[in-house]
């Protein structure tokens, strides 16, 4: 019998196929004692397994490229953490087997991190994944992870570690569904980068029986279990219609009546540029430069290395627009050499611009590298700061840009409600705003973006979030300046129309979403978008807002 489940759609498209579950977690190795004369051999075994896992993660990273590569390399470094290895050696020296020592050492490390409040759920999932890989290798059992299958399937998992999402083969993995994870978690961002339909935060996903046929609608978040032939045909027809509309829609982003809304790409580094160009991005709306820093958690990348990476991106968009965000370290993206280790609430602590103002040398190097990279290029460079709270923050950033001799527009991200509420005051210091709706939702609703249980509050359709978007866009208009959106909200085609109606001037998203947003925007006039925006703001919940906007746009 057909049943319908609802999670959060995070990556567009429809996938119909059989459920395959992610390789089960590694069992707890037995706590048996080994004789003292075996310790050295066990230590050798542990070291070899760690090295092999680190090499495997690095190789997967090289294969995946882009944002995924940085995440996988960070995991490879986690595996080889010298303190962790020393703990493994110590445990073996007092009688543990290699697998048990690895298991216990990682558990101790995990507890330490959790107690320090230092790592958020996403990082703990990465750590567990590294441990499972090492223990599986030592036990000689299959690696946990993506199932071995020659037939296409829908992957179902509790949560997906970056190592797995990076390796998903779009020709075999038709789509994926996870029980955990919010719409702005790393897994969701990586899924969009891959262009695989995905639904996250689906309670009970783990109970879907292996081999059951399901249809995943990554746009609506619906899962149809045992879909009828009629439902399959209906979904396939809708998908075909969408595909045809996508193919027919090309060129710059605009509404049906020609109101221009540049469609830009979110990238993590030069490796993401080809997909952005192919999707017809009119430039880059968010270059997340922190991925350049994740390679080496102990030092900032040299000025030369930064110049090279920035130049590669700038050269790809001659005469186009590239918005570079300076380093956004801290909270879910901690860097050992910058992020305080003892904060009780890292998301509310020293992160983003706050980190850079505490380490002006890091900001100076980055701005100087950007100035050098842009030298002689016809590109239209914009540089923005993450986590700007008030006018003083905006001024400090603009001053640093001027001191570095940067010839670019300076902007502020609106990720903290105070910045939206006082956008006009911030605009006295900078030339543009860019709404980071992922963090803006997190801080507006006091809902951690990594926690699936609060994903309802991370829904960018929440009318309170739309109010803050409207405030920011109105302030920018009054000041004669621009206000884009670069958070994940921009990748939802219907919401993109509403954002346009709220007065947002550009939309930046993962490359795979650009064709969907372009095609949908082209169907409606600016006046229709404005009416949809007003209807959404008049609603009392995210769901009502979505339905109200849909009703206006479909002329109901
Ligand atoms: C955001 O917060 O919306 C944003 C674009 O920044 P990030 O997702 O990198 O925190
Ligand atoms: Mg952010």
UniProtKB/TrEMBL annotation:
Residues 151-221 form the PEP-utilising enzyme mobile domain. This is Phosphoenolpyruvate-protein phosphotransferase. Residues 251-524 form the PEP-utilising enzyme C-terminal domain. InterPro entries: PEP-util_enz_mobile_dom, PEP-utilizing_PTS_enzyme, PEP_util_AS, PEP_util_C, PEP_util_CS, Phosphohistidine_dom_sf, PTS_EI, PTS_EI-like. GO terms for biological process: phosphoenolpyruvate-dependent sugar phosphotransferase system. Mg(2+) binds at residues 415, 439. Keywords: Cytoplasm, Kinase, Magnesium, Metal-binding, Phosphotransferase system, Pyruvate, Sugar transport, Transferase, Transport. Its EC number is 2.7.3.9. General (non sugar-specific) component of the phosphoenolpyruvate-dependent sugar phosphotransferase system (sugar PTS). This major carbohydrate active-transport system catalyzes the phosphorylation of incoming sugar substrates concomitantly with their translocation across the cell membrane. Enzyme I transfers the phosphoryl group from phosphoenolpyruvate (PEP) to the phosphoryl carrier protein (HPr). The active site is at 186 (tele-phosphohistidine intermediate), 486 (proton donor). Phosphoenolpyruvate binds at residues 288, 325, 438-439, 449. It is found in: Cytoplasm. Belongs to the PEP-utilizing enzyme family. It is an enzyme of class 2 (transferase). Its main location: cytoplasm.
């Amino acid at each position: 019998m057909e049943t319908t489940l609802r999670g959060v759609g995070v990556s567009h498209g429809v996938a119909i196929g059989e459920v395959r579950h992610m390789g089960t977690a590694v069992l707890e190795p037995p706590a048996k004692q080994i004789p003292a004369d075996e310790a050295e051999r066990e230590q050798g075994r542990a070291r070899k397994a760690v090295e092999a896992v680190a090499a495997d993660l690095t190789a997967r990273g090289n294969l995946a490229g882009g944002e995924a590569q940085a995440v996988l390399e960070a995991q490879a470094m986690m595996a080889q953490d010298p303190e962790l290895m020393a703990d493994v050696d110590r445990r073996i020296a007092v009688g543990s087997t290699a697998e048990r020592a690895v298991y216990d050492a990682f558990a101790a490390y995990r507890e330490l991190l959790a107690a320090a409040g230092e790592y958020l759920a996403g990082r703990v999932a990465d750590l567990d994944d590294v441990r499972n890989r090492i223990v599986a290798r030592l036990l000689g059992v299959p690696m946990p992870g993506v199932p071995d299958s020659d037939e296409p399937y829908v992957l179902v998992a509790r949560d997906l570690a970056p190592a797995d999402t990076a390796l998903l083969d779009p020709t075999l993995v038709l789509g994926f569904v996870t029980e955990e994870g919010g719409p702005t978690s790393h897994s969701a961002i990586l899924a969009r980068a891959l262009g695989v339909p995905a639904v996250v935060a689906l309670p009970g996903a783990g109970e879907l029986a292996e081999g059951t046929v399901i249809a995943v609608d990554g746009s609506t978040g619906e899962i149809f279990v045992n879909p009828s032939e009629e439902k399959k045909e209906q979904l396939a027809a809708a998908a075909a219609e969408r595909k045809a509309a996508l193919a027919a829609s090309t060129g710059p982003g605009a509404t049906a009546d020609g109101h221009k809304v540049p469609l830009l790409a979110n990238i993590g580094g030069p490796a993401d540029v080809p997909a952005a160009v192919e999707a017809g991005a009119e430039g880059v709306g968010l270059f997340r430069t922190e991925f350049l820093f994740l390679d080496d958690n102990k030092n900032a990348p040299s000025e030369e290395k930064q110049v090279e990476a920035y130049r590669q991106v700038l050269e790809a968009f001659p005469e186009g627009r590239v918005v570079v965000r300076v380093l956004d370290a801290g909270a879910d993206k901690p860097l050992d050499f910058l992020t305080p280790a003892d904060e009780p609430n890292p998301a509310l602590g020293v992160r983003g611009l706050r980190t850079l103002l505490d380490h002006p040398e890091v900001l100076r190097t980055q701005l100087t590298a950007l100035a050098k990279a842009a030298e002689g290029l016809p590109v239209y460079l914009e540089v923005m700061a993450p986590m700007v709270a008030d006018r003083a923050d905006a001024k400090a950033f603009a001053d640093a840009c001027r001191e570095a001799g940067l010839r670019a527009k300076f902007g502020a991200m609106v990720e903290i409600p105070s910045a939206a509420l006082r956008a006009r005051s911030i605009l006295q210091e900078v030339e543009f705003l860019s709404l980071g709706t992922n963090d803006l939702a997190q801080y507006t609703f006091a809902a951690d973006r990594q926690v699936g249980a609060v994903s309802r509050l991370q829904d960018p359709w929440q009318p309170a979030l739309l109010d803050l978007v409207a405030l920011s866009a109105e302030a920018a208009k009054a000041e004669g300046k621009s206000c884009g959106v670069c958070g994940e909200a921009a990748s939802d085609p219907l919401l993109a129309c509403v954002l346009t109606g709220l007065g947002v001037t550009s939309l930046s998203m993962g490359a795979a979403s650009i064709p969907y947003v372009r095609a949908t925007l082209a169907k409606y006039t600016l006046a229709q978008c404005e009416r949809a925006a007003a209807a959404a703001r008049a609603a009392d919940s995210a769901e009502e807002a979505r339905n109200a906007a849909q009703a206006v746009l479909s002329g109901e």
